[in-house]
Give the backbone structure.
Amino acid sequence: QVQLVESGGGLVQAGGSLRLSCAASGRTFSMAWFRQAPGKEREFVAHITMPGGGTYYADSVKGRFTISRDNAKNTMYLQMNSVKPEGTADYYCAARNSAGIYATNRPASYDDWGQGTQVTVSS
């Protein structure tokens, strides 16, 4: 089991930028960001494999968000640019500890979760 701690959330104006971080207590195979708005289901945002750095994005954030990682620090980042009011949500990082075939956009594919960090985008 890996402990995950998110940081970097806050209030940002529409069109602005924000950078989220997720520090893991140990190595993971892959990590991802999900978000959940009040009254809605948890939604996939982006995924990255820690060894190779391959990335995958939800269509809603493609071209605006960038996921990256620092293996030396066991840390993942989400650079959010051109944010929109509909991006207001709690953002969660997730970690998968093993390789294999899995759906990157499904919460059930991940073993460990952070506590979430709130992002509010004002219009």
